Amino acid sequence: MKLPLLAATFALSALLAGAPALASLDTVIGPRVVVQNQPISDCSSRASSALKSAMPEVNEAGTGSGEWVGVIRDASGAPSATAVIECHTLPDGYAASFTCLVQVPPSDTASVLCQKLSTAFGGGAQ
């Protein structure tokens, strides 16, 4: 009785494994923004604001960590896009780095998301 069910399971697995992917994961390491003569708190404020301009769910990874994470979820509640802006202290200011991961479709590419975020963040990319 279990043998037909097992055979059907293997057949379905083989069929699905050969099916084309409906989406792909696009990843980009975005620009690095350096800001002179400003405290790290300025970076955190700008990172939070930039993420909130493009993503509905924004949190700091840990209080005071300087690592800000934004998420867009699809209709089922699964993440379809995630972005991270990390703030790093420099001797005379700070640097912010951008990382974006998106499922295409339904989201734009990771490059587009990182560009939106770096524009919203402001500052000169290096």
Bin the strand percentage.
35-45%
Percent of residues in helices comes to: 25-40%
Give the helix/strand class: alpha+beta
Radius of gyration: 20 Å
End-to-end separation in angstroms reads 65 Å
Characterization of this structure:
- This protein is an alpha+beta fold and 126 residues long.
- The chain has one domain (22-121): TATA-Binding Protein (2-Layer Sandwich).
- 34% of the residues lie in helices and 38% in strands.
- The protein is built from three helices and five strands.
- The chain has a five-stranded antiparallel β-sheet, with helices on one face.
- A hairpin with a 6-residue loop joins strand 2 (57-60) and strand 3 (67-73).
- The N and C termini lie far apart (65 Å).
- The relative contact order is 0.24.
- Mean pLDDT is 83; it is low at 1-19.
